[in-house]
Amino acid sequence: MQNFVFKNPTEIIFGKGTIAQIDARIPRDVPILLTYGGGSIKRNGVYQQVRSALDGREVVEFAGIEPNPQYETCLKAVDLVKSHQVQFLLAVGGGSVIDAAKFIAAAAWYDGPDSWDILRTGGQNVKTAIPLGTVLTLPATGTESNGNSVISRRATAEKLHFYADCAFPMFSVLDPETTYTLPAKQVRNGIVDAFVHVMEQYLTFPTDAPLQDRLAEAILATLIEVGPRTLAQPRDYESRASLMWSATLALNTLISCGVPQDWSTHMIGHELTALYGPAHAETLAVVLPGVWAHQLAKKEAKLRQYGQRVWGVTTVEAAIGRTEEFFHSLDMPTLLSAYQINAEEAAEVVGRRFTKRAVKFGEHEDIDGSAAAAIIRSRA
Question: Exposed (0-12), middle (13-18) or buried (19+): which is 157, by Cβ within 10 Å?
Answer without folding.
Answer: middle
